[in-house]
Predict the 3D structure of the following.
Amino acid sequence: MADKSQSHIDPKLLSIELEMERAARYAAEKKLQQKESELQLLKRKLNNSETADFCFSGTDIINNINQHLQTGILIENESGLVISINESFCQFFNIKSPIQTLIGTDLYSNHQIDESVFANPFYFQQRTNEILSNREEIRNDILELRNGMIIERDYIPLYQQEEYCGHIWFYMDATLKYTLEKKLEKQKNIYEKIISYLPTDIAVLSPEYADLFLNPIAIKDPELRQWIIEWLIGKKGATTAQPKIKDARLTNYQELFEQVIHYKKGGFIEEKKTDNEGHTAHILRNLHPVLDEDGELEMIIGLHTDITERVRIEDELILANQKTEELARAKDLFLANVSHEIRTPMNGILGVAGLLGKTKLNQKQQKMTGMIKDAASNLLVIVNDILNFEKIAAGKIELEKIQFLLNEKLALLVESFQYKAKEKNIELYFHDLNENPLQVVGDPYRFSQVITNLLANAIKFTDKGIVEVKLQTIAETPEEIWIRIEVKDSGIGIPEEKIESLFQPYKQADSAISRKYGGTGLGLSIAKNLISVMGGRIGVESKINSGSIFSIQLPFKRNELATQPSFAISDYNQLKGLRILLAEDVEMNQFIARSILEEKGIYVTEAVDGRDTIEKIKNYSFDLILMDISMPYIDGIQATSIIRSMKDSPNRSIPIIALTANALEGDKQKYLHAGMNGYISKPFLEEEFLMVILQCLQKNDFCYSSDNEPLENPSNEKLYSEAQLMGMGKFQQAFVDKMIGLFLQTMPEDIELLKEATIKKDWKRVERTAHRIKSAIRSMGIQSAIQTIRYIEEAAQKIPPPEDIAHKVEWVAQAMLLVIEQIKADYPHIAVSK
């Protein structure tokens, strides 16, 4: 049997071995023919000699040759007696007798040949007798042995003067040859089947354009031959000059042929064909030259594929993509409109309420003013929910890395809801199952957003009973800690079939819930997405009328350098005497902005649209422009571009701040590219409003107001916001005292770290420390310093940082000292631990 390893022999290697075997066989046959001639010559000599008796021992020359050949040789006379036999023949037929004893014998009569070695002994006998009877030369007669070997034999009859006088048998092992041929034939059949089933016309042409091969599909393609004929017809009468299409774009099949023939360069074209019935087909046609060893064209391979279905799908995908882009643009436009149309009147509501709060009001009027601000703030929360959801869905949320005490943060968040809980006569508890403080590194703002959402829902949907918050550690390593937080309520519960859709956007468990309790249905979806971004997971257990348990598991890093933010203080006296052009077409917005600015001693000139703005810029001189984006005739961006293009105008480089209700991702970059110096998002707070004006007048980088939920506007000129602290703590004095104590304890240390890192030019440390300080400043409501510390944080990321970074660090340090002195004077009873 053939070796199993041969099944893995490369076809090319098998072909080479087969050719070598054929060559060896041819050489042996030539040698045997030569010896045959010598034998004939010897016989003639023997016939002419005086010896009457025939010697059956053969000649020494013949025997010597036979014994050195691998081919089995048997020479017999006309009577079938052995004249010569070699060892190879004996091995084929399992003959054990010495060769000398076989000379002059009849091998068949004496049963010397072991016929059992044949797969079919009867066929061997029958075929041998047939050949001997016919006495005609036979080549490549095949015999199969029982052991799987294939024998190839030749029979050559010997004649002397046209009289038969014997014959020669040649037996050769052809197993490898036939195995290789069989494998090649099998592979050929496989390849032919593969090519037959390919949905592509395949044509192989000779250099003379005759068919060497056509697969079944190509044979059935009537147009293929037509194209080749058309090309040949085009060749007749054509000039012998080579066409100049080597680097040109191919436009038809004939040009493709020209390129392959003359430049031996393959290519493809895509053709669109329409039949008489109006059916359109798209065909991709490829031609590839195959070169011989001398680089001459040996054959041409043509591939023709019907790509009509692919083109149809591509067209559908393009159309679907266009529709998707249109929907995305429509969604962005919708969000922009929602943002603008709600924020614009909200700016008026909050602005007027803020101005009203500064007047002398009785207790009832103060309460009603607060109710107006609360209602407007709630509406703004809904808008922010929608914008936050889109931001999270777009993957544009970046987590902070800030070190904070998780137990304390969660306790403060629970404490901040005590006021709401008491309003509904609900008991609100916090259970901390950890013995030690959990100092972690993460994003406390996003953490607060998640917990606030879960707590707000628990209290909202609980009419009586309790709400409990439980904190515990579930896994801990030196680098990481996993915590579990449960928010349990005794509220209305959730039907089991509604739990699965609970975290889907814009959905609530029951449509009646939105009518009774309000909300967008985005809160839980935002919470889940934020938890996912933070690497955690959320689950819920609930039964209708039996309350709910929301549980979250979150990982936090432990031993990482943290970040906590810082700010700078503004001297509003710098604004006195400024001339500001207010470009705003909404009368209420004009009133609010003008009131705030004039209170600080600023001279305000109003423009009602873009054209009016440009005219006033041409005729008057100003220190700054507050530019509304959405104005009639010429909008704020167009007006800015016109102003920036004015030649020889002193107002060409005037600071311009966008005053806009737009708050979508990318707005900042759009305004920056338009040539603006900053932007304020409506509704704005007084401190934010004035702070951005100050920053832009100080020639800082692009300045913009916070897009977070609006902070409470302070009612005095303090450098920090007591109103904000009270609002965060739901008017719990213990919360305010705790916040102030932490600020007084950590801020001096952070300022020293910031100054030290700046002196050492350790910009990475400067960035981290500035980031940490920024968070503390925002928590304390020191709005006038936020932009400077943000500038320091961003400047530290640049290589090299701006030269003024050291100056701004010193400014922040002095500002924080003023804040600390003011707080200590206001809260002398708060002791700071060292």
Notes: The longest strand covers residues 280-291. The domain at 401-557 is CATH 3.30.565.10 (Heat Shock Protein 90). The chain has a mean pLDDT of 76. The chain is about 45% helix and 20% strand.
